[in-house]
Amino acid sequence: MKKETPICDSCLNENCFIKKHLHLEKMKQYIEKKNSFVCKKSQQFIIEGAPTQGLYFVYQGKVKTVKTGIYGREQIVRLTTNGDVVGFRGFATSKRCLIGASALEDTILCNFSNEDMLDILKNVPEFTFDLMLFYAEELNKSENNIRKIAQMNVRERVIDTLLYIHRKFGQSNGVIDVELSRRDIADFAGTTEEQVIRVLSSLKKELLLKTVGKKIGLLNIEKMRAEIIEHK
Fold first, then answer.
1. CA–CA separation, 176 vs 138, rounded Å?
2. Given a cut of 80, is residue 149 above it in pLDDT?
3. For residue 179, how many C-alpha atoms fall within 13 Å in the half-sphere facing its CB?
């Protein structure tokens, strides 16, 4: 991994927890200790079951977080981009990582060690309060996802996944601005790659989306939203 040194003061990620609290005098000592690096596309920087290494913040790039399920199959539990935090599942409650994470493209990451993060939580109450609200929101999202998986059919789960990816990364030049394999979409939607291919083919025939290589472009977002509105 190539070393990189993003400057927090000039960071454009206003949603980043670190950026939000830069104005606090207590945060300055921790900023000086952060470790930053470039993670190449497909490179794993958090290994499930390995010792925890603090929290990671995405300075620039895209990351997928995975959890190993039954028969060793990976389930994508979260997609992250600029300003998002990675590695919070199990942080401070487990000595080993409960998830794995890898870069979807060349990504610059900022890392704060376990010791520094625990010091921040103990000494910077504003940061601790905001992180508590973040955990509460993530718990709410997880509960909603469990309900959706239980109640949605395969087509609806794939549509819901596509809409989420669109919201997360946006579209440029008519396609969603991230390259995900059909297997990635299946892992996130909780279905099989074959079923995803069939649903995408059906949506393409209905002129709801288009494909350009591996990339997907949504053509009628409102109609797709209407199809799953009862689950929202």
1. 24
2. no
3. 9
Element (H, E) at 126: helix 125-151
Span 69-97, average pLDDT: 86
Closest among 56, 63, 54 to 91, alpha carbons compared: 54
Helix residue ranges, H only, 2-124: 17-20, 28-31, 114-123
How many other CB atoms sit within 10 Å of the CB of residue 191?
20
CB 217 within 8 A of CB 209: yes
Interior CA angle at 84 toward 82 and 87, to 5°? 130
Residue 70 has pLDDT above 90, yes or no: no
Amino acid at 175: V
**37 HSE (CA, 13 A, CB side):** 14
Cβ–Cβ under 8 Å, residues 63 and 86: yes
To the question of pTM greater than 0.85 for the whole model, the response is: yes
The full length of the chain comes to 232
Task: Name the band, by pLDDT with cuts 50, 70 and 90, for residue 141.
Answer: confident
- The token pair that represents 85 in the structure block: 């935090």
Task: Indicate the Cα dihedral angle 24, 25, 30, 34, nearest 10°.
Answer: 70
* Structure tokens that stand for 208 in this block: 């709801």
Structure confidence at residue 4 as a pLDDT band (50, 70, 90): low
Instruction: For residues 64-69, give the mean pLDDT.
Output: 90
Cα 186 to chain centroid, rounded: 16
**DSSP code, position 99:** S
- B/e letters for 124-152, b = 16+ CB within 10 Å, e = fewer, are beebeeebeeeeeeeeeeeeebeebeeeb
